[in-house]
Amino acid sequence: LTMAFYLLLVAAYLRRAPSTRTDRQWSSWAVALAGTAAPFAIPIVSGGPATSTVREMISAGVLAVGLVAMLWALGALGTNISVVPQAREVVTHGPYAIVRHPLYAAELLNVVGLCLGHSGPWPWAVLAALALFQVARARREETLLTSELPGYAEYKSRTPMLVPALGRS
User: Fold this and answer.
1) Which end of the chain lies in a sparser environment, N or C, as judged by fewer CB atoms within 10 Å?
2) pLDDT one-digit tens code per residue, 116-131
3) Please, which residues have CB within 8 angstroms of residue 2's CB and are 6 or more apart in sequence?
């Protein structure tokens, strides 16, 4: 599933059209980089792999669900993918009909699976930091999309950001 995600990601990047606008603020780029790179810190800061077979099984299950959700979101997003905030078009189908940032939500779920598979408190600290980075990233992206794409403000007004039960914040 991980390989499928990265292959789909590379294919989308290679086929995508130019954006109508890119956020050029260094802080937006820093938040995007931190949000992208943070999960790679988990094996480094952890106390090692989880030693419980049950915990390993739960970790594998959460990782599988997270990866499937990431594939679904990336498939729906298609060639509108970008690491830094860029405006191309409003995507409202698939998981984007449920939340505005399903790829970020799925990545967070995937990192929960990574945390379950590792020991110690530091992987969970990385998850908390990642959640902050992803919310900041989403907000910066939404500022750009609202100003550049007709229909995004209306989509934003009716669709929750990351978690359906939390409303449209």
Assistant:
1) C
2) 999 999 999 999 999 9
3) 67
